[in-house]
């Protein structure tokens, strides 16, 4: 008996249960490439597997293996499918309707032609419990998207299609609990939730317009509501959609307009409409001319400094930068993971003083300008969890740099947490790479060739060179 046969015979002793545990850590491509055709036992075992397909960022060779071998072999075993709409694969090669056991479906960067082909196929996927369809950001869909398919087991549905969605059917979605819609009319949304989604608990929606018809009753099963609305005035939104949902426990509003920043109006509305509310979040944008002075902003903040808000620990803040056209008003701690600020020309006014105000911020775009006589850097370590740092220079040629520039940056972020740094703009101090000496976890730098040439003298420093060679895994020169 050869050594290879001995090794195979020993491998044969491994029970199926252990093999199945091993397969959990391998892709279907690796599993079938390695084990199929070895013997009948392995063939039978592989054909019985639940198969999870992920075609994101796969080479053509791997896709062809899936398409010409694996899909025809086990079409009824595929329970999860993730892919991107590229090369017309979903039009001419992949037939989703053949995967009748599919439970999880995610497709990114959809084109309109592909979307029109996919939607009719969804009715064949009766076991689907998770659906996530995302169109390209720049896609231009002229007509509204009409959703008419029955998905009896669907629990989570994400339709980010950059176009108004209309539900025109009489099919119930009895198991739908989480729904995310990119664009929807208030009237269509209210009728759909009341009539067809008796178990819906979490809704995220971008509303475009409309009003709730009088015949719609109150909806009691929805517990969480996240609204994006940049075209609907405060009173129209609150007089229509809010009257529909009286049992909310979480409410989050992302909107445009200073009328959304009046604490007295919010307190009157929330206290009378949502007795069970335990989480309330705002992120509002409006033009600077609406609140031109610091005193104006402080007066607005005082409308949120009431016993009602303090008891619930709901705090808020303005972030103001004169060089930007808009002011932001948001709940604390801020839920966004990205933020843009000016090192010397940004003021943050809050209803609380807490070091955890910006604990969720992972990516900071920091604009560097010459400080004026009245400006001062932001308070110490307010962005202590930042991992991705973008330094945006607005310095002019031959302009002297602030002598405390590096110290002021170090007071704002923790250099030891930084994992990637990008330099954007025309002019930086030639010594900027000295910062590497204080960033032990940095592994990625993006820098222009022009900047790199100007910093050549700095690169003669042995310590800097050691950091570049030992730490940096990704160097992008633009």
From TrEMBL:
InterPro entries cross-referenced by the UniProt entry: F-box_dom, LRR_dom_sf
Residue ranges constituting the F-box domain according to the UniProt record: 8-62
Gene3D superfamilies: Ribonuclease Inhibitor
Protein name (Swiss-Prot/TrEMBL): F-box domain-containing protein
UniProt organism field: Adineta steineri
